[in-house]
């Protein structure tokens, strides 16, 4: 019998190679000397959401396809180190990987290796259904093959969330995720009119709440047709890397939601966790804990 969990995180397991560059865009040159080193570590969007949820005390299970390769070993080791339950299904194409170029101000450019997936990849329906029904909530990343899993997940009746990341509001790949989820996160970075896109998501899909993060400008929250602004939170230390900030926001928002907090409070948690993530170097896997989150949320200016 499958053990009960608070959240099932679906997809988004992989490995990043992190390179700190002098600036972005990076000017064309024959070569650059990288004095800070080039490091490869486990941690893509699903890994970071699972890590954030676990640090906040939620029982988390992560399901994805992993290769029998060194990258897969890094992902398995990360989950083992942090006590995150992992169901890793075989992926002959190999474990997902990316290269992250990080500027001195913390901005990031990610290069994703699309060869680490195959069009016919699927999660076995029986395993997917069993893990979903044993969870209070399912967070679905937009990595392959999660889109094909959406109909099964909706049949289970378990609440769903997803993160559309830097969706431009037009790319059709993201639409099934946007319309199937009860809670939708996305970045406002590629949106000319965040409110318009958020309202379209709510009108065309099932979302009870839509959140668009906007970096140093805070976030937008749409609930029951009412749009509000969530103020940004001052990071507790210098900003070194924005990688994982959106995942941290989503994890902390979900923590609040599962604790029965109102959406505005959940978004405040998200802003605090996202600000904390920006102070963590990309070479480390570290998320804010529950005590620190609640302490900062209780202060007048977290």
Automatic annotation (TrEMBL):
Cross-referenced Gene3D superfamilies: 3.40.1190.20
Any one Gene Ontology molecular-function term assigned to this protein's record: kinase activity
SUPFAM superfamilies per the UniProt record, alphabetical: Ribokinase-like
InterPro entries: Carboh/pur_kinase_PfkB_CS (IPR002173), PfkB_dom (IPR011611), Ribokinase-like (IPR029056)
Highest taxon listed in the record's lineage: Bacteria
The keyword Cytoplasm belongs to this UniProt entry's keyword annotation: no
Keywords: Kinase, Transferase
Ranges where the Carbohydrate kinase PfkB domain occurs: 180-285
Pfam families xref list: PfkB (PF00294)
Protein name per Swiss-Prot or TrEMBL: Adenosine kinase
């Amino acid at each position: 019998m499958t053990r009960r969990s608070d959240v099932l995180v679906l997809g988004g397991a992989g490995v990043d190679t992190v390179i700190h560059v002098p600036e972005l865009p990076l000017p064309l040159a024959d070569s650059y000397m990288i004095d800070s080193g080039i490091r490869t570590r486990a941690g893509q969007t699903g890994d970071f959401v699972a890590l954030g949820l676990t640090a906040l005390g939620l029982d988390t299970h992560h399901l994805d396809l992993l290769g029998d390769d060194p990258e897969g070993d890094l992902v398995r080791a990360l989950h083992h180190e942090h006590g995150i339950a992992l169901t890793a299904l075989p992926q002959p194409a190999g474990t997902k990987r990316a290269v992250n170029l990080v500027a001195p101000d913390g901005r990031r450019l990610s290069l994703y290796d699309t060869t680490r997936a195959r069009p016919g990849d699927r999660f076995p329906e029986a395993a997917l259904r069993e893990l979903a029904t044993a969870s209070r909530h399912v967070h679905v990343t937009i990595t392959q093959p999660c889109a094909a899993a959406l109909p099964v997940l909706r049949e289970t009746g378990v609440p769903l969330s997803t993160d559309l990341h830097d969706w431009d509001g037009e790319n059709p790949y993201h639409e099934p995720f946007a319309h199937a989820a009860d809670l939708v996160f996305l970045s406002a970075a590629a949106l000319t009119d965040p409110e318009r896109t958020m309202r379209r998501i709510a009108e065309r899909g099932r979302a009870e709440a839509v959140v668009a993060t906007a970096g140093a400008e805070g976030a937008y929250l749409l609930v029951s047709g009412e749009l509000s602004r969530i103020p940004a939170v001052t990071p507790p230390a210098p900003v070194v890397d924005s990688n994982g900030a959106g995942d941290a926001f989503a994890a902390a928002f979900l923590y609040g939601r599962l604790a029965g907090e109102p959406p505005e409070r959940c978004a405040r948690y998200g802003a605090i966790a996202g600000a904390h993530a920006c102070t963590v170097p990309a070479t480390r896997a570290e998320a804010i804990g529950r005590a620190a989150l609640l302490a900062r949320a209780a202060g007048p200016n977290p």
